[in-house]
Design a protein that fits this description.
125 residues, 8-stranded antiparallel beta sheet, alpha+beta, 2 helices, 35% strand
Length: 125
């Protein structure tokens, strides 16, 4: 079964691999830096950005610690990851990826349900 994905919002919006990046860019442009997507199988995909880097987390079910994209060897940390509740987080650059890479990862997960074969991620379970 191929999963379908929606952006969790007041009125959930369905997205495909062809439309998800436009939806993310539109949300970022309007100041929404945190986006949660839910699949038809109950999985969740979190995308939080400071507009330069992003944290991408894939959860199998509610309460799952999940798995997240990493950038091994990246130095320092970055702030400006503003959550929908107004909280401004700072993350190690190793635990985030450049935004162009985050877009590639999200597009692939929405398209296939899996990380790209060449992606780097850590299982937090």
């Amino acid at each position: 079964m191929i999963e379908s994905w929606v952006i969790n919002d007041d009125s959930p919006v369905g997205v495909s691999s062809e439309t998800v990046l436009g939806a993310l860019r539109s949300r970022i442009d309007s100041g929404q830096r945190e986006t949660w997507l839910t699949s038809s199988s109950g999985r969740s995909l979190a995308f939080v950005t400071n507009t330069e880097r992003a944290m991408v987390v894939l959860l199998e079910e509610e309460g799952d610690p999940g798995e997240h994209a990493v950038d091994p060897g990246a130095q320092g940390s970055s702030d400006g990851f503003v959550l929908s509740n107004g909280q401004d987080d700072e993350y190690s650059n190793e635990d985030t990826v450049p935004i162009h890479e985050a877009f590639r990862l999200v597009k692939q997960i929405v398209k296939t349900g899996s990380w790209p074969k060449d992606a780097r991620w850590v299982v937090d379970r």
